[in-house]
Amino acid sequence: MGRLKLHPGIKSIEEEPEDTECTSSNKAALACMINSEIGSVLAVMRRNVRWGGRYVSGDDQLEHSLIQSLKALRKQVFSWQHPWHTINPAIYLQPFLDVVRSDETGAPITSVALSSVHKILTLDVLDLNTANVEDAMHLVVDAVTSCRFEVTDPASEEVVLMKILQEQKASYYSG
Q: How far apart are CA 30 and CA 84, in angstroms?
């Protein structure tokens, strides 16, 4: 397979300078990616009859704690002023891991939450220099190995089980 051809005057990624503007745009890109993953999990939750009725956008008091934690992270993620490697990964992984652990969510919701965690782990957001990375990896392994979901559809359940194995592999190689 070949590379994409660039129009004249457009620099390739390798040619872009490493400066503070790139770092801040990188920070914004990570925040946008996590925001997108939050949106994905919430969207699947809204499609489910059990969660659709509970999802009330105006009154946080009526929302389930899983939805509240995802929405709180959504508000928080764009306000972080520090570089990503100084932020405890448990802060942005925990709401997804809570969904994975919950026995109130069905296989489709658990599957999307596992995909979100997998994306975060495979985008090189975490490395050995990340604050509390060992604790975060422990949380991921613990959540994945204690994954619980409501039994509804055998095909969806098989997908979740495959993602659990994929996540354990990603956690092993990331940590």
A: 8
- The model's pTM is 0.72
Digit-coded pLDDT (tens) for 86-134: 999 999 999 999 999 998 888 889 989 999 999 998 887 788 888 999 9
Q: Tens of pLDDT along 65-91?
A: 899 999 999 999 989 888 888 999 999
Residue carrying structure tokens 């990616």: 33
Q: What is the DSSP string of 57-114?
A: SS-GGGS-HHHHHHHHHHHHHTT--S-GGGS-HHHHHHHHHHHHH-SSSBHHHHHHHH
Task: Answer whether 34's CB lies under 8 Å from 92's CB.
Answer: yes
Residue 1 covered by a domain: no
- Confirm if 154 and 143 have CB atoms less than 8 A apart: no
Total structural domains within the chain: 1
Judge whether 8 lies within some domain: no
- Dump pLDDT digits (tens) for 136-164: 999 999 998 888 776 676 767 777 777 77
Beta-carbon contacts of residue 57 (< 8 Å; ≥ 6 apart)? none
Domain that holds residue 96: 23-174
